[in-house]
Amino acid sequence: MAKYTPMMEQYLAIKAEVPDAFLFFRLGDFYEMFFEDAVNAARELEITLTGREAGAEERVPMCGVPYHSAESYIARLVEKGYKVAICEQVEDPAEAKGVVRREVVRIVTPGTVMDSRSLGETSNNYIVSIVSGSEGYGLAACDISTGELHVTLLDGSLQLLLDEINVYSPSELMGPEELLDSVREHTALWTRSITLTPWTRGDFDLKGHFAEEEWKSVHPGTLRAVQALMSYLQETQKRSLTHIKHIRSYEQNQYMIMDPFTRRNLELVETVRDRVKKGTLLWLLDKTVTAMGGRTLRRWIEKPLMNAAKIGERLEAVDKLYDQLIVREELRQHLKQVYDLERLTARISYGNANARDLLALKLSLQQMPLLKEICESAGSGTLSRLTAQMDLCEDIAGWIEAAIVDDPPVSVRDGGMLKEGYHAYLDQLKEANKSGKQWIAELERQEREATGVKSLKIGYNKVFGYYIEVTRANLGSLPEGRYERKQTLANAERFVTPELKAKEALILEAEDKMVDLEYELFTQLRDRLASQVTRLQALAEIVATIDVLQSLATVSAANQFRKPEIAESGDLVIEEGRHPVVEAVMTSGLFIANETKLTAEDGTMLLITGPNMAGKSTYMRQVAIICIMAQIGSFVPAMKARIPILDRIFTRIGAADDLIGGQSTFMVEMMDIQVMCEKATGRSLVIIDELGRGTSTGEGMAIAQAVIEYLHDEVGCKTLVSTHFHELAHLEESLANLRNYCMAVKESGRQVTFLRKLIRGAASTSYGIYCAQIAGLPDSIIRRSYDLLSAFEARAELAAASQQAAAAGTPQAAAPEAPPQAEAIVQLSLFGGESPADKPRRKHDAKLEAAADPKAAEAAQRLRQADLINMTPLEAMNFLYELKKML
Length: 887
Description:
CATH topology of the largest domain: MutS, DNA mismatch repair protein, Chain A, domain 3
CATH class of the largest domain: Mainly Alpha
Strand order of the largest sheet: 13-23-24-25-21-26-27
CATH architecture of the largest domain: Orthogonal Bundle
Number of strands: 27
Helix content: 40-55%
Number of domains: 5
Mean pLDDT: 86
Largest sheet: 7 strands, mixed
Oligomer: single chain
Structural class: alpha/beta
Low-confidence stretches: 655-663, 812-852
Number of helices: 31
Radius of gyration: 38 Å
Distance between the termini: 107 Å
Strand content: 15-25%
């Protein structure tokens, strides 16, 4: 085995403690990495890989980053899913006997990032702990940057556990390895990459950390998840976690449940295509002006309420603010002066807040009296109850005001943070330091006069201390023996005097004591503030709620949303409903509003047919989004809405191959529908777009009808189903709660206009070839498609006639053979009705075919092509005369 130097042996021993992390090993002004860490870090960070003699026969790989810019490099590694262990010197090198003692002072993981530059301002960074037991799954989700800790117990369904994990979109998931293995195969299609950390230790003393009322009412299965989580945080952070004070326990039935596909399809917080905020419901509703308000709004959207009373409280506040523009603007102006109280409090408790953080806290607290006054003037019972709970923390603001200067430095180690008058001895040291520097300035003036050298100056550096510097050109002007030579430069000489050295000792002693004392006093103040974490966190939560309520009111007023009526159950009725996001991004035209009635009288299941591009998917999405908006306490884009509280929303919208899992679009659709059929209840909303596609026409229709019948007969949920299978319209006759609807289309000669309007009845055609033409397919393909379609329809009609004749006992001529391409065409019955293409397809009439009259066929063709809507009465009479003459 190779023999390494003592320092390298120390490195290897510490590295053995953190084998799954990059070890940032402090050497002077750099963090160094060696061996495999160096090779991998050089590749990931794109920095130079070098080597170092380490006592072995060969040089070991090495790379490093400056300590003062290490945070950016750490952030880059953590963003890629790695962990970084920071190893510091923990003793003074001057006092060390042998190798300086070093220890890992913190392990940074994706779920434990505290650096605000690496965190989204209006999004949480959760680490989630999961455990399993006979009682179900325990889940604990913590954002260490804010101190939030949410816990719940789920039943034995792995799918429910996956849904709940996805709500938090964690950057790191920890738990027993076998449980993580069960989760791992489902994470590929989640909205963000996730680091899985096997962890089974649960030796954290919950009773010693949390107040009794915090943990006593929490289920034991959930407490095990909390214990594991806190053990992991303590192991990685190496410090007190006093800002994690409250366990927010909830039951899953308190919130609407949505699976990951539903969240993605509805584009609640990020778009499907680009995974960005713009174009989502969150983007539309987010007029918050504080970071914590932005995070709270996101949580409300991801977890809509199921409690009518709590929804009503939110709606009451939004209603009162809706018509009070001045009150809203005053609230917004004062909220803009409030910094991120949650993360400021966490940094203070964590011990890494600087003087500027404390100043930001003071400025934020100074806004609280005015915020309270404005909320009370709004006349809202909800806002009044919130402000009644507000602790203005004026004493905390006073502590900071008395201590911190108005423009403090970033570093807490260089002094200059505390005001004069805050501490008597510190003031004395400051005065001694100040007078000493004034003495230096006066000495410089005296020496210039005594020597006649105007360029003489007195300077300072950390190596030589204070010195008198004279350029070489002026050395002859110096009196002999006046100065003691200290240092020779290329163009100057540096000198000292006994008097200057004596004064230097006094100045530096005062400066060292001053800086050390100021740092000590600052940490005492920071610790004092840290003891008030509970008060500050409670205040931050109230301010965030106020910010969200004003945001919802602002958006509702700007977009003319209306207050919904909330019911525990019953009918879902929306008058003139609109899709709020689509309407917001439209650059021209008006959004066409639609009615929705899912009632016992009008039917709780709508079967929607019609062409692509007509607005079916948008309509179904808007119904779901209006329901979600209502259940988070927002006004909705409708003239009137009665919304029953939904326990779950399921959506199957758009094609989505699971390439990683090796599953086709059709298989993914069937798996989604399986979950719907298993989990939906009578209080759920189910939305399925293009049910039955992806397989043959016969099988697709069979599956579609079976699914519709099951949801209608067995589940009884509110359902919106769209399909191209017009043949399914007959289900309205056999299913009592099903109604046929379609998207209206206007045909004018060769032009088709999709009216985006939902109307009663079934569609007769899909306009598939017309959509292909709009998409820009070559004209030759379009023409050929219409020719083939005409032949297919002719064959189908003659076959039907032949069957009818056979049933009646009348002999019929054999149907003509289909074109050779016919067998390659799938779902032929999807295409029916007239088309507005340049060469309209000829729908064969059985009587004309039997008569075989060319004049009649020509007259029928001219009639089909005629633009009757735009004809004048005289033109119509002439046209009719020509047809009659032809026949």
